[in-house]
Amino acid sequence: MADAVVFDLDGVIVDSEPVWEQVRRAYVAEHGGRWLPDTQRRLMGMSTAEWAAYLSGELGVDRGAEQVATEVVTEMSRRYAAHVPLIDDADQVVRRLAGRWPLGLASSSPTRLIGAALAATGLADAFRATLSTEETARGKPAPDVYLAVAARLAVDPARCVAVEDSSNGVRSAAAAGMRVVAVPHGSYPLDPDAEALAAVVLPSIGALTPGVVERLD
């Protein structure tokens, strides 16, 4: 039986990937960069330092990486202050699973946005451990953040079930040795290799029941 469940935040609990895309795409256009066809797919899962360096370097934004990170996160914070886009039923799913297992949160969002999202959705007390890839050496698809959350929960990663939406997120959790429930976003389908790594693929977060987790043992 699983000893813990670790959730991603963006795309699983809050529908923030489209907001991230809007904000970063506009920022790149405003500051002399060029958005590429595969940019959004590559950005999903990157840590703050990684995506800021990518915008500043590869996409040609006329700002240093540190300034890029500060300005983009400030705009995301402004968006969150106006509205945090909770995915339908996600808060109920989290509460339901929190009644059965200790929960962790392994997110690529900066720490300040994780706090804002959990406060706005009323879920801050549902997670025993939360961590941003800002605090790990590498972002997703590296396993660092999932391994660190499992350590904070004092649970063997192999005894954890992860809930992810993106290809890089699935790769990250699988590389940590976790069994992965994938809930892909309609606008950002999984790459075939990532889909093959998932133990189960669900059509929506509302389909994630305690029974689904139990059947992964």
Describe the protein's architecture and organization.
The chain is α/β, with parallel strands linked by helices. The protein has 10 helices and 6 strands, in the order βαααααβαβαβαβαβα. Strand 4 (160-164), helix 8 and strand 5 form a beta-alpha-beta unit. It is globular, with a radius of gyration of 16 Å.
What layout of secondary structure does this protein have?
Layout: E1 4-7, H1 17-30, H2 39-43, H3 48-56, H4 65-82, H5 90-98, E2 103-107, H6 111-121, E3 129-132, H7 144-153, E4 160-164, H8 167-175, E5 179-182, H9 192-197, E6 200-201, H10 210-214
Parallel strand pairs: 1-2, 1-4, 2-3, 4-5, 5-6
Helix pairs in contact: 1-4, 3-4, 4-6
Helix fraction bin: 40-55%
Estimate the mean pLDDT confidence. Answer: 95
Structural class: alpha/beta
Q: Unreliable segments (pLDDT under 50, ≥5 consecutive)?
A: none
**Gross morphology:** globular
How much strand? Answer: 5-15%
Instruction: Name the helix and strand elements from N-terminus to C-terminus, one letter apiece.
Output: EHHHHHEHEHEHEHEH
State the distance separating the first and last CA atoms: 5 Å
Count of individual beta strands: 6
> Major sheet: order of its strands?
3-2-1-4-5-6
Major sheet summary line:
6 strands, parallel
Number of contiguous helices: 10
Q: Which value, in Å, is the CA radius of gyration? A: 16 Å
